[in-house]
Design brief:
mainly alpha; two-stranded antiparallel ribbon; disordered C terminus
């Protein structure tokens, strides 16, 4: 007769150390999307079409790059484990590369655009070297699903802090240093400090965490990607999460338009952003209790339902005013926190079950495909908003100029921030409701009773 060895317990230092990595991922995930396009068009004078291509190209590159990085990290053997060498490489390379993005020539525009394109692509590559193994790590440092949920609650709370620091701090530094190329370069140095502190902090903070994987790494990348997709739990979770990422990308892109066109107050965009992201810091203990009592799938469905209700209520924004809108956005933020935590805690469970069943290490491939899908969803969201606004005849402006928009454009802004993201997240619920996971026991972890 046999019994399963006790699940590993991670210390608070490991929880905090792992969470620090999300400060870095939040900074790189937020600042380029917030400022890089404007820097190209209004500081360097690059045409909008070329600037959009420069910003989007690394997102498309990630779709190819991330699964490859995951596959290579699966095969890595070192005394640091399979993931931390890659995380360290990304954490050391990304900060200086991010500074270089904003340290290039200011003219002519074609040369400036080429500089940004090359350095930003290199920065995105370094980021992938950190992000993919970072997401894979929880599947290998603990075999306790509850412990993974705790780890993810710390991570999502740190992610929210990082988004708030980077989202609010980066524009403030640009303004404090007088704008222009000097202001953006000073901002890049600040963000580089956040990147280095977060990413290298995660490398150092997880050095005492065990590597519990006792499986072999094998197979080629393409074959492993196919095998990962054939995993029904992974396929359902990835599909639902990808659709939700698209909905979140649509909503985030709509914040400034909604603040200006619906609420009539461009400054309200910062308040809406804080109301959306801020609750994640406060509600993580709540979602963690939900996870332990009712399970992660139930928690994810509940969080998604809150998001849908809050987002749909924003369709009344032109009637009810700013106060009720902020209340609805806070409700959306509470749901958004759960929609981040639960899938990230469920993914390592899926990976661990696959390893138990197959005897092959594919965590990197799983997380490579996962991060590629997330990146693509968040990138397509703003493009979808821009396309819908163009079809509706939205009139672009410069500076503080205010022009009357056609009724179709106003309606698109209103619905694009409310019913469209609500509908996308609602569409993910039937997929996620079918998610089931029955992990197999790990024979190599069994000990005599």
């Amino acid at each position: 007769m046999t019994g399963v060895a006790p699940a590993s317990r991670l210390g608070r230092r490991t929880h905090l150390g792992y969470a620090l990595g999300s400060i870095g991922t939040a900074a790189f995930g937020t600042v380029p999307g917030l400022l890089l396009l404007y820097y190209l068009t209004d500081v360097l004078g690059v045409g909008a079409g070329v600037a959009g291509l420069v910003v989007f190209a690394p997102k498309a590159w990630d779709v190819v790059l991330n699964p490859w990085i995951g596959s290579r990290s699966d095969r890595t053997e070192s005394r640091w484990g399979p993931r931390r060498p890659w995380m360290a490489a990304g954490g050391m390379c990304l900060p200086p590369l991010f500074v270089l993005v904003f340290a290039g020539p200011g003219a002519p525009p074609a040369l400036a655009a080429l500089w940004v394109a090359v350095t930003f692509l290199l920065a995105a590559t370094a980021y992938g070297c950190f992000q993919v193994p970072y997401v894979a790590q929880p599947a290998e440092i603990t075999d306790d699903p509850g412990e993974r949920a705790t780890l993810m609650s710390w991570r999502v709370a740190a992610l929210a802090v990082g988004i708030l620091l980077a989202g609010a701090g980066a524009p403030a530094v640009v303004d404090a240093f007088g704008g222009g190329r000097a202001g953006y370069l000073a901002m890049a140095v600040l963000v580089a400090v956040l990147l280095a502190g977060g990413m290298l902090g995660a490398v150092a903070g997880t050095r005492s965490a065990p590597t519990l994987t006792r499986v072999r790494s094998e197979g080629r990348l393409g074959a492993n990607v196919v095998l990962a997709w054939r995993s029904r739990p992974f396929r359902l979770l990835l599909t639902g999460f990808g659709v939700q990422a698209l909905g979140i990308g649509v909503m985030l892109a709509g914040v400034p338009y909604y603040a200006r066109q619906v609420l009539g107050d461009p400054a309200a965009g910062s308040v809406l952003f804080a109301a959306l992201v801020g609750p994640a810091v406060l509600v993580m203990p709540l979602w963690l209790r939900v996870s332990r009592r009712w399970g992660k799938r139930t928690g994810l469905l509940a969080a998604s339902a809150l998001f849908v209700v809050g987002a749909a209520a924003l369709a009344l924004g032109d009637v009810v005013g700013t106060g009720p809108v902020i209340t609805s956005v806070v409700l959306v933020g509470v749901g958004y926190a759960g929609m981040q935590m639960f899938p990230l805690a469920m993914l390592p469970d899926v990976i661990a079950a696959d390893e138990a069943a197959s005897g092959a290490r594919r965590a990197g491939v799983f997380t490579g495909v996962w991060t590629a899908a997330e990146t693509l969803g968040l990138a397509v969201g703003p493009g979808l908003v821009g396309g819908l606004l163009a079809l509706a005849g939205y009139v672009s402006t410069s500076g503080d100029d205010v022009v009357a928009q056609p009724a179709a454009a106003d309606a698109t802004v209103l619905l694009g921030f409310s019913l469209l993201p609500a509908a996308l997240v609602l569409a993910s619920l039937p997929v996620l409701a079918r998610y089931r996971l029955a992990p197999l026991p790990r024979p190599d972890l069994e000990v005599p009773a």
